[in-house]
Write a structure and sequence with these properties.
Elements (H helix, E strand, L loop, with lengths): L4 E4 L3 H12 L6 E4 L15 H5 L10 H7 L1 E4 L4 E5 L4 E4 L4 E3 L2 E4 L3 E3 L12 E3 L3 H11 L4 E5 L3 H12 L3 E5 L12 H13 L3 E3 L4 E5 L6 E4 L4 E3 L2 E4 L3 E3 L2 H5 L8 E2 L11 E3 L4 E5 L2 E3 L4 H15 L12 E6 L2 E7 L6 E6 L5 E8 L2 E8 L2 H12 L5 H6 L4 H6 L1
Parallel strand pairs: 1-2, 1-7, 2-3, 7-19, 9-16, 10-11, 10-16, 11-12, 18-20
Antiparallel strand pairs: 4-5, 5-6, 8-17, 13-14, 14-15, 20-21, 22-23, 23-26, 24-25, 25-26
Helix pairs in contact: 1-8
Bound molecules: flavin-adenine dinucleotide (FAD).
Length: about 400
């Protein structure tokens, strides 16, 4: 009998495992279990195109016919409540049990909810799934003032859309710069300049301490005693990996489900991928929240399950964020940079930052520079590229690629 694959979580990564298994020629039963309703969909547009136009029809990752054609048993609206490892079964919330030979955990992450007084008031929103986005979009139709707690990618993408719609937006960010966990200071500054020019009131070094209001949100109190008036509050302060299923089943967890270089948990039958996985990258324990990681992890696991020999996972991370007219594209991870070289466009605005560690190029952040981003991805996936060499080529990444 063929091996049975069960996938928990029907988001970007889970869907890709199912699709890649069939592409790799896997003929056994594949069951894809997801707790959300409807077809598996992509999240990035929720804070971008969907927030602008509300068009749900472009979100589905695959049409309904795909599951029948590919012979994938897709079951939406199902919560996996437990993993019975001795029996080799997952336990569903309706008590049903499904046996597996390989289990893939692709449970994603959920939003952090800081314990602020007033956080449960009507008018306080978060943005993770389609249902959140639909609620937020509907409410944003009628408000004049919005406060966004958290100046990371999702908060800023929403701020750009809302400000363009004429809403007065205040972004409350505890750090001294925007997107500080993920980008270098010159990129933070470029986006700060953009948002302020677009009319967004960005407060840096500002800590939200409470949501104000009686029956509904009316604003946010800050630690310095100031108050920000708002009819809508978006919480966008980061996420927490969904790792409880794994922990309760006795698998190793630490800021995500701990996996090895082939994305296997401490139980060799069980893999974890995407936002919920803590995996080694270049020897460093890493957890990424990106489409790239979810998709590349999924492909790697599908190849492992089908028995294809392959080296440990080492795909180059890349990411994007659209904020107003600015498209930020990041190749590599700039964590741990010790030097940067900044390039500017014809107007003098920062459009690229090359980040280095020990003189080696580790990441390239590009704004509206798609060609340079693609060159950077190819370059960073190859042999080490050093500061001196790029300087000698006048920082031309395409020339470095050709050389
Ligand atoms: C608004 C927004 C904008 C984004 N923009 C970008 C972007 O521009 N670029 C980028 O690279 N990334 C972006 N991301 C991140 C990207 O969408 C995620 O990194 C990606 O979806 C991760 O895929 P995943 O499969 O790990 O998790 P998900 O796609 O989140 O899927 C996990 C699924 O598992 C389900 N699940 C969890 N537990 C269970 C259970 N016990 N039983 C059944 N189902 C369960 C969840 O409900 C969810 O449906 C964005 C995310 C959001 C929310």
């Amino acid at each position: 009998m063929s091996d049975r694959v069960v996938i928990v979580g029907a988001g970007q990564g889970g869907l890709q495992v199912a699709a890649s298994l069939r592409q790799e020629g896997f003929a056994g039963p594949v069951t894809l279990l997801g707790d959300e309703p409807g077809l598996p969909y992509q999240r990035p547009p929720l804070s971008k195109a969907y927030m602008k136009d509300g068009d749900e029809s472009r979100l589905a990752l695959k049409p309904a016919s795909f599951f029948e054609t590919a012979g994938i048993d897709y079951r939406p609206g199902i919560i996996v409540a437990g993993i019975d490892r001795p029996a080799g079964e997952v336990v569903l919330d309706n008590g049903e049990r499904l046996g597996f030979d390989h289990l893939v955990l692709a449970t994603g992450a959920r939003n952090l909810r800081p314990p602020l007084p007033g956080i449960d008031l009507p008018g306080v929103h978060e943005l993770r799934g389609l249902a959140d986005a639909a609620r937020l979009r509907a409410m944003a139709e009628g408000v004049r003032r919005a406060a966004v707690i958290g100046g990371g990618f999702i908060g800023l993408e929403f701020a750009a859309v809302a400000a363009a719609r004429g809403i007065h937006v205040t972004v409350i960010e505890a750090a001294d710069r925007l997107m500080s966990r993920a980008v270098t200071p010159p990129i933070s500054q470029r986006f700060l300049d953009f948002h302020r020019a677009a009319g967004v009131d960005v407060r840096l070094g500002a800590l939200g301490t409470a949501v104000l209001g009686g029956r509904a949100a009316e604003g946010v109190a800050l630690a310095d005693g100031q108050e920000v008036a708002a009819d809508l509050v978006l919480l966008a302060v980061g996420v927490r990996p969904n790792m409880e299923l794994a922990a309760e089943a006795g698998l190793a967890v630490a800021n995500g489900i701990v996996v090895d270089g082939h994305l296997r948990t401490s139980d060799p039958r069980i893999f974890a991928i995407g936002d919920c996985a803590n995996f080694p990258l270049g020897g460093i324990a890493t957890r990424l929240e990106s489409v790239q990681a979810a998709v590349d992890h999924a492909r790697h696991v599908a190849r492992t399950i089908t028995g294809a020999g392959q080296p440990p996972y080492d795909a180059l991370p890349w990411f994007w964020s659209d904020q107003g007219p600015l498209k930020l594209q990041i190749a590599g991870l700039s964590t741990g940079w010790d030097d940067t070289h900044v390039l500017t466009d014809a107007t003098g605005a920062v459009d690229t930052v090359l980040a280095f560690r020990d003189e080696r190029l580790i990441a390239v952040e590009a704004v509206n520079q798609a060609g340079r981003h693609m060159a950077a991805r190819k370059l960073l996936a190859g042999a080490p590229v050093m500061w001196d060499r790029l300087q000698g080529l006048d920082w031309d990444l395409r020339a470095a690629l050709a050389a």
